[in-house]
């Protein structure tokens, strides 16, 4: 609703020359036709106001002035009691609907005429235009595909045609990109789609690393810890026995003997009596160590058998997080595939 200002004729001329009238259907402009010099406001004395709008509909002259009614301030009544906001959208009388698109199967297939144009989104928009009695006009960009929008409200490609008002609507597999939300109105999605990311297949693991796959990393850490604990316990038992006989000068030899003894047990080798700790406690300790090494070697052998039977591959990339951690350089056939990543700080 536009009310009269100080310079009425200048205001009206400015209003009807606005580019925005092309996109706004409901407008009422108030013009003072008669002014009582003694009146001090709209409702005072005998002022007469004419109410105007613009045509909006039709092939041409969409900003043409159209008379609606007269309003009299004296008795606060209308002359014709017309609807001040008629529905101009149901039947648009052939008004042009400029549609930005490009050849992108199966969504938009541009033909030489309206009947030859195909594609899911193309047919949807053509049906929409026919339903509201509009004349579809294709605005085709042969280069740039989806294009991009810049901060100064310019752009190129399909998005550029929209932001620069060269088209009313646009389609061709457009996504709900956040970066474009600040410049355009986005409709309700018609189709749910996704992007398939192709990554290299996992390669065969190096041959020399095959024996390491029998146990997990945690299991290897447990085996290593157990190895050093057994060395420490056996060395302590040797050292305590030597201290009783006042023979602690051979500490380095006792440590070597303990390391060699535990290492032999872990790889299923024969241990001599001299290498075992003396006394009853030494026998109990060696019995437990023999039992532990038996279970350890059996588990390792069965795991190695399965690894040797089935080829072992490197770590595959199955999730977005794994893809981000892989540090693989990636690319796409067009900049539009990266639009969803604009301004994103989280790498996943």
UniProtKB/TrEMBL annotation:
InterPro entries: Insect_Ionotropic_Sensory_Rcpt, Iontro_rcpt_C. One of its GO terms (cellular component) is plasma membrane. Keywords: Cell membrane, Glycoprotein, Membrane, Receptor, Transmembrane, Transmembrane helix. The chain crosses the membrane at residues 219-242, 284-307. One of its GO terms (molecular function) is ligand-gated monoatomic ion channel activity. Residues 216-327 form the Ionotropic glutamate receptor C-terminal domain. PANTHER family: IONOTROPIC RECEPTOR 20A-RELATED, IONOTROPIC RECEPTOR 41A-RELATED. The keyword GTP-binding does not apply. GO terms for biological process: detection of stimulus involved in sensory perception. Pfam families: Lig_chan. Belongs to the glutamate-gated ion channel (TC 1.A.10.1) family. It is a multi-pass membrane protein. This is Ionotropic receptor 41a. It is found in: Cell membrane. The keyword rRNA processing does not apply. It comes from the Eukaryota.
């Amino acid at each position: 609703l536009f009310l009269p200002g100080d310079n009425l004729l200048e205001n009206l001329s400015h209003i009807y020359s606005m580019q925005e009238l092309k996109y706004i259907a409901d407008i009422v402009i108030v013009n003072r036709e008669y002014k009582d010099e003694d009146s001090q406001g709209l409702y005072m004395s005998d002022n007469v106001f004419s109410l105007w709008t613009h045509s909006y509909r039709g092939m041409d002259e969409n900003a043409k002035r159209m008379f609606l009614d007269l309003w009299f301030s004296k008795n606060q009544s209308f002359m014709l009691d017309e609807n001040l906001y008629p529905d101009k959208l149901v039947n648009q009388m052939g008004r042009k609907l400029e549609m930005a698109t490009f050849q992108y199967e199966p969504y938009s297939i541009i033909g030489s005429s309206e009947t030859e144009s195909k594609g899911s989104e193309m047919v949807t928009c053509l049906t929409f235009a026919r339903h509201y009695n509009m004349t579809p006009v294709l605005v085709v960009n042969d280069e740039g595909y989806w294009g991009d929008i810049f901060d100064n409200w310019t752009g190129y490609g399909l998005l550029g045609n929209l932001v620069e008002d060269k088209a009313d609507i646009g389609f061709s597999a457009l996504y709900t990109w956040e970066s474009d939300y600040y410049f355009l109105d986005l409709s309700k999605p018609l189709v749910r789609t996704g992007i398939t990311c192709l990554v290299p297949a996992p390669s065969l693991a190096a041959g020399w690393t095959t024996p390491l796959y029998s146990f997990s990393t945690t299991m290897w850490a447990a085996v290593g810890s157990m190895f050093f604990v057994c060395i420490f316990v056996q060395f302590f038992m040797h050292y305590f026995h030597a201290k009783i006989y006042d023979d602690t000068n051979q500490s380095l030899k006792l440590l070597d003997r303990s390391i060699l003894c535990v290492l032999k047990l872990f790889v299923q080798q024969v241990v001599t009596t001299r290498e075992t700790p003396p006394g009853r406690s030494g026998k109990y300790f060696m019995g437990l160590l023999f039992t532990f090494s038996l279970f350890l070697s059996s588990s390792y052998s069965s795991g190695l058998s399965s690894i040797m039977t089935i080829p072992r591959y490197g770590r595959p990339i199955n999730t977005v997080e794994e893809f981000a951690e892989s540090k693989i350089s990636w690319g796409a056939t067009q900049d539009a595939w990266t639009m969803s990543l604009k301004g994103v700080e989280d790498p996943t």
